């Protein structure tokens, strides 16, 4: 079981991610915007962050830069984006994103990615028994 922080301004996406990840046995915390996400990150110290790119106020790139500014072992960050163009991807890679997932996405694709990343990092994740 891992603690996953979901930062997205879209309530439907937050609920979908929460439902899918909790059904898979993870603890999910949500944040409604970038500033809320940074506060939650500091308090929770999550194992994984799922971050929307386009949000009002502090966007996903700003959140990512702040997360990458923390000391210690870097937390894997997955960015969700409806703008899967090469400029957006290049900006994310430069800021230190680990993974991209274009919207719309399937629950299976999301879970495969999360399990693949966390399977080696968090005891009990990705184990079949």
Automatic annotation (TrEMBL):
Has UniProt tagged this entry with the keyword RNA-binding? no
Q: Which GO terms describe its molecular function?
A: DNA binding
Positions modified as 4-aspartylphosphate?
A: 52
Q: Which Gene3D superfamilies match?
A: 3.40.50.2300
**Response regulatory domain ranges (all copies):** 3-118
Pfam families for this protein? Response_reg
Task: Tell me the GO BP annotations in alphabetical order.
Answer: phosphorelay signal transduction system
What the entry lists under CDD domains is as follows: REC_OmpR
What's in the keyword line of the UniProt record?
A: DNA-binding, Phosphoprotein, Transcription, Transcription regulation, Two-component regulatory system
Q: Which InterPro entries match?
A: Bact_response_regulator, CheY-like_superfamily, Sig_transdc_resp-reg_receiver
Transmembrane regions: none
Record protein name field: DNA-binding response OmpR family regulator
What is the organism field in this record? Catenuloplanes atrovinosus
